[in-house]
From TrEMBL:
Annotated PROSITE patterns: GLYCOSYL_HYDROL_F32
Domain Glycosyl hydrolase family 32 C-terminal: 382-563
Domain Glycosyl hydrolase family 32 N-terminal stretches: 52-367
One Pfam match: Glyco_hydro_32C
Annotated GO MF terms: hydrolase activity, hydrolyzing O-glycosyl compounds
Organism: Gossypium darwinii (Darwin's cotton)
Similarity remark: Belongs to the glycosyl hydrolase 32 family.
Name recorded for this polypeptide: Glycosyl hydrolase family 32 N-terminal domain-containing protein
Annotated Gene3D superfamilies: Exo-inulinase, domain 1 (2.60.120.560), Glycosyl hydrolase domain, family 43 (2.115.10.20)
Alphabetical GO biological process terms: carbohydrate metabolic process
C-alpha cells in the first residue's frame, strides 16, 4: 500500500538556563537569522545556510579545539575578522547548549606577540587535572616559522571562558633538529599515558612524506620530542590537522582521549590531498607504539571521513553525553571574487557522532540527534515503487532547507552490471557514470536543489554492480548540473559502501541547506558533502525528487522528509576587535 502523509511537528517548549540568557541580554545580542521566514533568505544571499554554523561575515576555516565545559559547548575556529579571504587569522569563539543554536563571543586569540605575530593557526583543547581547559595552537612567528603555543582561561569560574591568556613560556615547541619550519603545525588534543606524562602530536612533512611527530611533557610546559614519529607514510605529503583518539570496539559510547581501556581501537586522522583520511590500529600506551591495520592508501585502502568537500576536521569527547563528536570545515566551491561579493566564505559541517562499525574495519558517522529538533513539517511515503526511468516529486516541504531519509530495496540483482576489476576509483567511476547514464540497477536516489524542469539538479544516487563473489554498491554525488552558472566548481564525488544489497536496504540521509548537501549512505558508512550554487533552484523555487534512471524497478520502503527551521546565531554587540598591531 502506498500513501502520502503530511505532518506539522509542533515545537516543544524548551526551558533554557535563565542565567545564561540574562547574561547575553546584559551584554547585548544581535540575531542573524529569523525563524518567522525560515524558508527564505534575502535574495542577494541565497547561499547562506539556515541551520549550519557560520559567522555573520568574513572568512572561516578549520574548527579548533571544540569542547564541553560546565554544561556549555565551545567551538573555536580560524577566522579573519576583516575580510572574506584567508589572512589575519584569529581564534574566533562561539558557545552553545545544544550544538545547533550559537552565541558568538569575543575573539579568543589574536596575533600580536612575537610567537604568533603572523597568525594564530589551528590547534586543540585539552583538559588538565582539575578539569582545567587549555589551548595548544600553532603560531606563525616573526620569522614566519611555525611554533606551538599555550593559552589558558583567565577565569575558570566563567563557564563561557570569554577571556584567554597566552603563556609567558611560549613558544613551547619550535622547529629544531631539521624540522621544516614551514611544515610544523596543528597540535592535537593531548593525552596522558600510564606514566603520567602528557603526549601530543604535531603535523609535519619530511622529505615529501607525511608524519605525526610525538612530544611528551610532565608539566605541559617543557616538551621533548620523541626520536621517532608515532606514524609516517611514504605515500602522502604534509599531514595537516592530525587527530588521534580511541573508539570502543563493541560499545555505543564515545571514549575519552586519555582512556587506557583495552577494548578500543585507535584512530589516526590526517588531512592531505584536500581530504580527511584515517587509519585504524592498535596503540600501546606504555611504549607509544601504534600498529595500523592497513596504512594510508595501501592495497587500495582509502578510508575517509567524507568523500566530498570536507577538510581540517577535529573531534572532541562530549563528557556530558558520552559521545565523540566530529566537526569539519566545508570550503566554498565558487571563486574568491564571489566570496568577496557575498561577504563571507566557509561553513562548518553539522556535528557528527563517531563510532566503530560492527566489522571493526571502518568508522560510522551520523548527524547528532539535536539537529532533529529543527524538523518542523514532515512528508512521508511508504512502499512506493519507482519504475525504471521515473521521477517522483516529494512536495509539501521547503526543499531548499530540508532533512531527507529514504531507503531503497531491490527484488532482483541477477541483471546487475558486471563490475570491471579496473574500476577501483569511485570518484572517477561516478564521473564516468553520472546520473544521466543508465544501467540495469541504477542510478537511483534523490534529486535535491532541483529546478521544476530539472535543468538544475544535484543527484545523490546509488548503483549496484555484480562481481564474481558479491555485489558492489557505489554511492555518488553528482554536481555536474547543480547550476546553470559556469563559474562554480561542479566536482562529482563517489564512494564504495560496504553493503550487502541482497540482505539489507540501501539507505540515504541528506541534509540540504541552500548551498550545502551532506549525505550519509548505508547508515553512515559513507559520507559525501557537496557545495552547490544553483541559480534557478533557490529558496521556494527549489524542488525535491526521488528518481530511478535504471531499467529495473526499485522499491522505496520508506521516505521521510522534513522542512528545517533556522538555527539561531546571535552575537554580542560588545565584541572587541582583535589587535593585529
Amino acid at each position: 500500500m502506498t500513501y502520502l502523509k503530511l505532518e506539522v511537528t509542533m515545537e516543544k517548549s524548551v526551558v533554557l538556563v535563565i542565567g545564561f540568557w540574562l547574561l547575553l541580554l546584559g551584554n547585548g545580542v544581535q540575531s542573524h537569522r529569523q525563524d518567522k521566514k525560515h524558508q527564505s533568505l534575502p535574495r542577494d544571499q541565497p547561499y547562506r545556510t539556515g541551520y549550519h554554523f557560520q559567522p555573520p561575515k568574513n572568512w572561516m576555516n578549520d574548527p579548533n579545539g571544540p569542547m564541553y565545559y560546565k554544561g556549555v559547548y565551545h567551538l573555536f575556529y580560524q577566522y579573519n575578522p576583516y575580510a572574506a579571504v584567508w589572512g589575519n587569522i584569529t581564534w574566533a569563539h562561539s558557545i552553545s547548549y545544544d550544538l545547533v543554536n550559537w552565541i558568538n563571543l569575543d575573539i579568543a586569540l589574536s596575533p600580536g606577540d612575537p610567537f604568533d605575530i603572523n597568525g594564530c593557526w589551528s590547534g586543540s583543547t585539552t583538559f588538565l587535572s582539575g578539569e582545567k581547559p587549555v589551548i595548544l595552537y600553532t603560531g606563525s612567528d616573526t620569522m614566519n616559522r611555525q611554533v606551538q603555543n599555550l593559552a589558558e582561561p583567565k577565569n575558570l569560574s566563567d563557564p563561557l571562558l570569554r577571556e584567554w591568556v597566552k603563556s609567558s613560556h611560549n613558544p613551547l615547541m619550535s622547529p629544531v633538529d631539521g624540522i621544516d619550519p614551514k611544515n610544523f603545525r596543528d597540535p592535537t588534543t593531548a593525552w596522558q599515558g600510564p606514566d603520567g606524562l602528557w603526549r601530543v602530536l604535531v603535523g609535519n612533512e619530511m622529505d615529501g612524506h607525511g608524519r605525526a611527530l610525538l612530544y611528551r611533557s610532565q608539566d605541559f610546559i617543557t616538551w621533548s620530542q620523541s626520536k621517532e614519529p608515532i606514524h609516517s607514510s611514504t605515500r602522502t605529503g604534509m599531514w595537516e590537522c592530525p587527530d588521534f583518539y580511541p573508539v570502543s570496539i563493541d560499545g555505543k559510547n564515545g571514549v575519552e582521549t586519555s582512556s587506557l581501556d583495552k577494548f578500543t581501537k585507535q584512530v589516526l586522522k590526517a588531512s592531505f590531498d584536500n581530504s580527511d583520511h584515517y587509519v585504524l590500529g592498535n596503540y600501546t600506551a606504555v611504549t607509544d607504539n601504534f600498529l595500523v591495520d592497513t596504512d594510508f592508501l595501501d592495497n587500495g585502502s582509502d578510508l575517509r571521513y567524507d568523500y566530498g568537500n570536507f577538510y581540517a576536521s577535529k573531534t572532541f569527547f562530549d563528557s556530558g553525553k558520552k559521545r565523540r563528536i566530529l566537526w569539519g570545515w566545508i570550503l566554498e566551491s565558487d571563486n574568491t571574487t564571489d566570496d568577496v561579493k557575498k561577504g563571507w566564505s566557509g561553513l562548518q559541517s553539522i556535528p557528527r557522532t563517531i563510532l566503530l562499525s560492527k566489522t571493526g574495519k571502518q568508522l560510522i558517522q551520523w548527524p547528532l540527534e539535536e539537529i532533529e529538533k529543527q524538523r518542523i513539517i514532515k512528508v512521508s511515503f511508504e512502499n512506493k515503487e519507482l519504475k525504471g526511468g521515473s521521477v517522483l516529486e516529494v512536495s509539501g516541504i521547503t526543499a531548499s532547507q530540508a532533512d531527507v531519509e529514504v531507503s531503497f530495496s531491490l527484488s532482483s540483482l541477477k541483471e546487475a552490471e558486471l563490475m570491471d576489476p579496473s574500476w577501483v576509483d569511485p570518484k572517477l567511476l561516478c564521473s564516468q557514470k553520472t546520473a544521466s547514464v543508465r544501467s540495469n540497477v541504477g542510478p537511483f536516489g534523490i534529486l535535491v536543489l532541483a529546478s521544476k524542469d530539472l535543468t538544475e539538479q544535484t543527484a545523490i544516487f546509488f548503483r549496484v554492480f555484480r562481481s564474481k563473489d558479491n555485489y558492489v554498491v557505489l554511492m555518488c554525488s553528482d554536481q555536474s548540473r547543480s547550476s546553470v552558472e559556469e563559474g562554480p566548481q561542479k566536482t562529482i564525488y563517489g564512494a564504495f559502501i560496504d553493503i550487502d544489497p541482497l540482505n539489507e536496504k540501501i539507505s540515504l540521509r541528506s541534509l540540504i541547506d541552500h548551498s550545502i548537501v551532506e549525505s550519509f549512505g548505508g547508515e553512515g558508512r559513507a559520507c559525501i558533502t557537496a557545495r552547490v550554487y544553483p541559480k534557478l533552484a533557490i529558496d521556494n523555487q527549489a524542488y525535491l525528487y526521488a528518481f530511478n534512471n535504471g531499467t529495473l524497478n526499485v522499491n522505496i520502503p520508506t521516505l521521510n522528509a522534513w522542512s528545517m527551521k533556522n538555527a539561531q546565531i546571535v552575537s554580542s554587540t560588545k565584541r572587541r576587535k582583535p589587535n593585529l598591531n
